[in-house]
């Protein structure tokens, strides 16, 4: 299939960016979207042009490194990661707009690459447990009810790709932060920091310049891992509970 790509090109964080048009030919419908960009980059390199910069690592939908806005939607027309999006979702002759995540807290580094270290700082403020490290504990040493384990696992699926922020008109990171808070707060291993975790992570989220939640729900719609919108309500309950209890401990 032959496609017209309009891609955001920006040489440096300070440089003005612009959409640049490329014609690509010979694209297989079995290619992933990133393989299609690899194909474009090979042609750009052969012709002496600068290849398009974009983030990727596992290309298996696991690491959360990839991410771009495709035709106005975070990760494109399918509810999956960009690396797992395949070209069969497009038609021969299509024009495809490709842009980086758009959010004040995710400044553009180059082309389609944005700085998502704000997420790392939110995680660092409370996304951990203070249990002793060492060899793996015996599986039954700390009983966890099945429903609680399932809830924690559902939220642990968040890969921190940032699609929730890119999709939100407010640039809010509430879905991401709530996934991390709920994942750890419902488990007995996460209980010692239950109060401080939610207070500190929400404060870090605000400090990084992410917007507030106004319940548009775009975040949950774009999330490739299906983190539910109810996570935000769960985090808000945890926050209220922590405030009432004075903010620290269980
Ligand atoms: S490259 Fe790892 S999730 Fe896409």
UniProtKB/TrEMBL annotation:
Biological-process GO terms, alphabetical: aerobic respiration; respiratory electron transport chain
Keywords on record: Iron, Iron-sulfur, Metal-binding
Cofactors, names only: [2Fe-2S] cluster; [3Fe-4S] cluster
InterPro entries for the chain: 2Fe-2S_ferredoxin-like_sf, 2Fe2S_fd_BS, 4Fe4S_Fe-S-bd, 4Fe4S_Fe_S_CS, Beta-grasp_dom_sf, Helical_ferredxn, SDH/FRD_Iron-Sulfur, Succ_DH/fum_Rdtase_N
Entries under NCBIfam families matching the protein: PRK07570.1
Family membership: Belongs to the succinate dehydrogenase/fumarate reductase iron-sulfur protein family.
Record-given protein name: Succinate dehydrogenase
Organism annotation: Streptomyces cinnamoneus
Taxonomic path: Bacteria, Bacillati, Actinomycetota, Actinomycetes, Kitasatosporales
